[in-house]
Structures are given as C-alpha cells and as structure tokens.
C-alpha cells in the first residue's frame, strides 16, 4: 500500500543557518519572518534561537535596518501613509523604538507632496457626480492607504 503522506524532511542546523543567511541576504528581513520560516522548516526552539543569534551576530538580521528599509520602500513605491506603515511594522512585531526611527526616514515635504499627488490622481479617476459621495470615495481611498485622517479630510475639502 503506497504511503500518501509526504516525507518530513529534516534539515540540520548548519543547513538551516546557510538557508537563512541567503534568505536574509536576498532582502531585509525581520526576526518574526525568520522565526516563522524556521518553524516552517520544523526546527526546534533551541535551534531557532541559535540560528537567529548567529544571524544577528553576523549582521544578516537587523531589526532597525529592516524597519527603515520597509518604511522607505512602502512610502516611495506603494505610496502608503504613516498609519499603514506603523500597522504593518507592528504586525511584524517591530519595537516602538524602531518604528519611530523608521518613520524618520520619510521626509515631511515629500510626504505632503505624495499625498497631494495621490489624492489628485485618485480624484481624476472617480466618476461619481454627487459631491458627498465623491468626497467619501476619495477619503476612504486615502484612509485605506494609511494616511492620517486630519490630513485626508484637509486634502479632500481642499480638492472638492
């Protein structure tokens, strides 16, 4: 009778360490992502601690560097507001100190320019004729992207 269960492969600590070095070298990672990946490789907690310790010591893993890179990337590429960036970093269990440090990577002038550009672009796409519904659609879009409500409502009232 054939065995329908996949074989559980066991990875040595050395192999797992090498894999994690590549994983972290490819792109910035946070501790949470690395630990989850190691759990997925069926590593025991002692091995996970040892590997994470090694990655930190060898500078493959740096939570502050990750947070700064993440904040810059999500703002510059995805045009996310500070609220969304903070929420996503919190989901990855980044410390409040590192989140604060990461937000300093976003220039205030660029931040407001990006909000203006994003709001204008979205407004041009909204086909709604009712002014209240138009305002709501624009506000909902910007709030979803993580922009602070006081900035959103200021911008919506300015544009419509």
Automatic annotation (TrEMBL):
Main location: cytoplasm
UniProt key word Cytoplasm: yes
Keywords: Cytoplasm
GO cellular component labels: cytoplasm
Annotated localization: Cytoplasm
RecX third three-helical domain span: 110-154
RecX second three-helical domain sequence ranges: 62-103
GO biological process, one term: regulation of DNA repair
Pfam families linked: RecX_HTH2, RecX_HTH3
InterPro entries per record: RecX_HTH_2nd (IPR053924), RecX_HTH_3rd (IPR053925), Regulatory_RecX (IPR003783), WH-like_DNA-bd_sf (IPR036388)
Listed Gene3D superfamilies: Winged helix-like DNA-binding domain superfamily/Winged helix DNA-binding domain
Family: Belongs to the RecX family.
Protein name (database record): Regulatory protein RecX
Organism: Flagellimonas aequoris
């Amino acid at each position: 009778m054939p065995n329908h269960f996949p074989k559980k492969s066991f990875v040595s600590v050395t192999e797992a360490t090498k894999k994690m070095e590549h994983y972290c070298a490819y792109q910035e990672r946070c501790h949470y992502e690395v630990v989850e990946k190691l759990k997925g490789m069926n590593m025991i907690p002692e091995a996970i601690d040892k590997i994470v310790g090694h990655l930190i010591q060898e500078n493959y893993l740096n939570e502050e560097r990750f947070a700064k890179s993440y904040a810059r990337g999500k703002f510059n590429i995805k045009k996310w507001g500070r609220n969304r960036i903070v929420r996503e970093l919190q989901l990855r269990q980044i410390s409040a100190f590192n989140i604060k440090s990461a937000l300093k990577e976003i220039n205030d002038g660029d931040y407001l320019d990006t909000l203006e550009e994003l709001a204008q672009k979205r407004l041009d796409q909204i086909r709604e004729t009712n002014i209240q519904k138009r305002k709501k659609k624009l506000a909902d879009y910007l709030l979803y992207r993580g922009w602070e409500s006081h900035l959103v409502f200021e911008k919506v009232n300015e544009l419509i």
